[in-house]
Write a structure and sequence with these properties.
Length: about 300
């Protein structure tokens, strides 16, 4: 901590936060106070405890992100913007937060290890490296990528809950607020899968891709098409030689089936190969005519 920390101004002027908090309706104050109290207790626990088991990994992610999903869902319901059931199905809300947090933790491994911390559970990375430094070392790259892929699989298991949660949101602005981070997360976790660059530094989706995802996060059908598109990308990246190949295939098959049976018009058609063939054809024809005209002149 210090005056140059990003949070310094917030702490110095925290009285402003309290003043605005006290202006909120009492039912909102109760939700916020409850969630922040539980988050604070959980975060304090993990200043003294390392993330070792899969249970502790899920618990840590619950404290720092799942509880955010709980609080927001309760606020959506209490405000009348969403059905009261949204504030009651908190397992789904928890999964929304866990998918985001696990994606970030998976992506940030290099930065975290270099800063002397690691939120990957030892139950996963301990099978592939003796130390956290060895985990990201270039001399241990193959095993490091295997560990990365197990982390990606752990995050991908939350997809069904994410889509189910979004299916119950009806207010357009609330839907976009919830959907945009999730479409960013599916794009990011697919980018991370089987990608050794994750172990060398922070990988991010391109700004143009991010803008496209924002524009495609306005309704449930559009979001399902985004998930379907990235699941197909994951399918193309998933090679039989990968130790988690079969498990990833199960996730891919289930997600595609779930989306195809609920999406208006059925499953999206991937025309990538057709477009590539057309592009090659046009290049060939253009090259032929250019060569012909050059010779004629």
């Amino acid at each position: 901590s210090g005056p140059d920390e990003k949070d310094a101004l917030l702490l110095v002027e925290f009285d402003v936060v309290i003043r605005e908090f006290l202006r909120l309706p009492i039912e909102y104050q109760e939700v916020i106070a409850d969630i922040t109290r539980r988050m604070g207790a959980g975060m304090a626990k993990y200043t003294r405890t390392r993330v070792e088991s899969l249970d502790s990994y899920n618990e840590y992610c619950h404290y720092v992100a799942g509880l955010v999903g709980h609080g927001l869902s309760r606020l959506f319901a209490k405000s009348g913007l969403e059905d009261p059931a949204v504030g009651e199905k908190l397992e789904l809300a928890n999964s929304m937060g866990l998918f985001l947090q696990k994606t970030n933790i998976t992506r940030d491994i290099n930065e975290d290890v270099l800063d002397g911390r690691c939120f990957w559970p030892k139950a996963i990375w301990g099978d592939y490296a003796a130390t956290e430094d060895e985990l990201i070392s270039k001399t241990n790259r193959e095993k490091g990528v295997d560990a990365l892929n197990v982390m990606c699989v752990n995050a991908l298991h939350h997809i069904p809950d994410v889509l189910e949660y979004l299916s119950q949101i009806t207010e357009p602005s609330v839907f976009k607020f919830c959907a945009i981070p999730q479409t960013m997360a599916i794009a990011t976790i697919v980018l991370c899968y089987d990608n050794p660059r994750v172990l060398d530094g922070n990988v991010k989706i391109r700004k143009g891709e991010a803008l496209k995802l924002i524009s495609q996060s306005g309704n449930l059908d559009s979001v399902k098409r985004v998930f379907y598109r990235y699941i197909e990308m994951l399918e193309r990246k998933n090679h039989p030689s990968n130790p988690v190949y079969a498990e990833v295939n199960k996730i891919i098959d289930k997600t595609k089936k779930d989306i195809a049976t609920t999406l208006k018009g059925g499953a999206p058609v991937d025309l990538t190969k057709e477009y590539l063939v057309l592009a090659l054809f046009l290049v060939t024809v253009t090259t032929f005519f250019y060569s012909y005209l050059t010779q004629a002149s």
